[in-house]
Amino acid sequence: MNFCKGYSQINNLFITAFTWQPHLDTSIELAILLQKASKDVHYCFIWVHNIEEGSSLPHFLKKICAIMRLVRILLKYKIRYSLYYVGPSIFFTIPKFKDLSYLESYRLKEKPIGLGILSTLSDLCVDKIINSDDSLRLAPILLKRAISVHDIAEKVIRSLQPDSLYQFNPRFSNTRSIYLAAQGLIENIYTYEIASTPNKYSLVNGSIFDGSLRSRLIKKHWSHAPLSKFDIARSFFSDLKHNSSMFCGSDEFDCEPYIDRSRINLLFCPSSIAETYALGDLYNHGLFVSQDHALKTLINLCSNSDSYNLIIRVHPIVALKSDEEKSYWSNITATPNIRIVQFYSRVSTYDLMRRVDRLIVYHSTIAIEASFEGIPSMALGSPWWIDLNCVFKPSCFLDVQKFIDLDTNLIQNLDYSKALLYAYYLKTYGTNYNYIR
To answer: In CATH, what number is assigned to the domain containing residue 7?
Structure first.
């Protein structure tokens, strides 16, 4: 269904597919700012009938109220708009899923649209909106809706031919559809997100997951910060440790059995699969194709030598993820020098971190925490802090080998204090709202 207020070529296009208020507020704020700067703006909203709406009338009415509020604000600021509706009944079929791996290879017009479904299902499980058992049932439903959103977004983009697109974090099923629809059609794609606090937002030209871009923004943010920045940054680490699901301070769960003092002890702390793999080309994986590729490389290096004791600490959050992800980690084979600390273990990751010779991550923030404590760490992916020079960034496979061999030349120029830059950024970054309260 389309309630369109007329099309003509415009400069700035907003396409949104969320009624979540913080997301809507950010998009409205940005649209108003552009409109007041005499920029040509068109706002397209795609209302997607979400999985929980069919059984909850109050929830459905809340969505209606959010859309009415949106339209009222757009009319107040004389912003042109169009509305679309994607309902629960979509008249095309998707093959039945045997498992979620089908989403990894699913393509729409050669575009990896299925990856966004993996991210959405992962978040729904973590937020306890659904159980992990529901993922397989919901996957084809979400995929149908994502395809519908893609087709609507592509139609609007081709009709309006905008110079720039503004959209919310393109990691999720429907927002990824919008991002993929714009590929090859729009030169400038701006992505926005909720920032350090609910009353702030962040906008970047490109992917919000671009580690090199974020590193530059982090350095700039620090250079303009007040003297209190050091205390604020330190509070980030104490808060993180207090709130982290990885932390367990009880002596009852001793990590010493995982340590082998006759070998080089290496701790690998992987991220959840959906946090990196499902990002696809939104994330610059760098030296490795994926976290799975990096992990297999480490296992291969350590399995072929008696010099290493590789400890793989599976993230506890996997307990809330899909059965496929749990199975992935459960199927990693332990050997005399490959030890697995599973997601259900109560062993403290922080205790492990302090007892090993080197920490290795793909994307996990625990590398920054290690740097803050002066523990050498290496990142095999491209997280936000990758270019801050507080965590080692390998440029080739030989660098990886040298790092696990405890080559001190690789880490002598690291500045562990730069971890404070990232900490301060996460605590304070973003722009305050002016028009939306």
So the answer is: 3.40.50.620
Q: What angle do CA 269, 271, 275 make, to 5 degrees?
A: 170
Q: Are residues 71 and 162 in the same domain?
A: yes
DSSP of 7-59? ----SEEEEE----HHHHHHHHHHHHHHHHTT--EEEEEEEE--TTGGG-HHH
In this structure, are residues 269 and 315 in contact, taking their beta carbons and an 8 Å threshold? yes
Residue 183 domain boundaries = 2-194
* pTM summary value: 0.88
Alpha helix (H) residue ranges in 167-322: 173-182, 211-223, 229-243, 273-276, 291-303
In a domain, 340, yes or no: yes
Residues in CB range of 278: below 8 A, 6 or more apart = 115, 116, 118, 119, 122, 171
How many residues can be counted in the chain?
Answer: 437
pLDDT band at 273 (very low <50, low <70, confident <90, very high): low
| Residue among 16, 50, 46, 63 nearest 138 (CA) | 50
DSSP bridge pairs for 164: 12, 188
Tokens of 193: 């997100």
Total number of domains in the chain: 2
Rg over CA atoms, the chain:
23
**Cα angle at 409 between 405 and 413, to 5 degrees?**
130
Q: Which residues contact 65 (CB under 8 A, 6 or more apart)?
A: none
User: Is residue 249 scored above 50 in pLDDT?
Assistant: no
For residue range 176-232, what is the model confidence (pLDDT) as tens digits?
999 999 999 998 999 999 999 988 999 999 888 888 999 999 999 999 999 999 999
8: left (phi over 0), alpha (psi -120 to 50) or beta: beta
DSSP structural state of residue 272 = P
Q: Is residue 247 located within the same domain as residue 392?
A: yes
For 79-133, the DSSP string reads: -EEEEEEE-S---S--PPPSSTHHHHH--BTTB-THHHHHHHHHHHHHTTSS-GG
Instruction: Give the whole-angstrom CA distance, residue 327 versus residue 68.
Output: 44
